[in-house]
Amino acid sequence: xxxxxxxxxxVETSAGExxxxxxxxxxxxxxxxxxxxxxxxxxxxxxxxxxxxLDVPSCxxxxxxxxxxxxxxxxxxxxxxxxxxxxxxxxxxLLPGLTALENVMLPLELHGVSDARAKxxxxxxxxxxxxxxxxxxxxxxxxxxxxxxxxxxxxxxxDILFADEPTGNLDSTTGAHIIDLLFDLNREQGTTLVLVTHxxxxxxxxxxxxxxxxxxxxxxxxxxxxxxxxxx
Length: 232
Prior knowledge:
four-stranded antiparallel beta sheet
């Protein structure tokens, strides 16, 4: 599902060139789950954006669902994301002027799904929000907003779901429920999961674990790399 080869990311700053990622390589099978962990500033979120086609690397190759992201222009990457990718943001990214139901329906309608309303209702029910369909984001708790975001991501039945700190803004009880929801839906739909997290319980539940430090991969599935590059 995902193959990453020697990916690097450099940006220009007022102080000169800054290297954010250095020769990152790994692969992930369809249906598998991967936790990406590391201290703040280690490159986790930058890597996640590149894997999802939201950003482009300065060098290296990313293949997603058998297609080379690095060979596509922005329109091509957008089309690939629309067909294969779901994303759960730490800040939820719900549209405040739309109800929970409308937030889940919108991407389905944009992709021409004929039964968008019924499908959105089904997934909101699956995440326990059947009584909150007509509520706006500001009327929902943080945990409820995150569940709307998860329902929206899974309703499009993506092949791969990227989540950036999905429990980062939640209390421990709500976070544990969100974790259970992610993996329940993962098992039922066979969706590949790639999660950036500081939550140890979430990392432990994933089949694979990639550890970042200073823009490099310093551990993968319990193996430590002196060179900072591990491939499976």
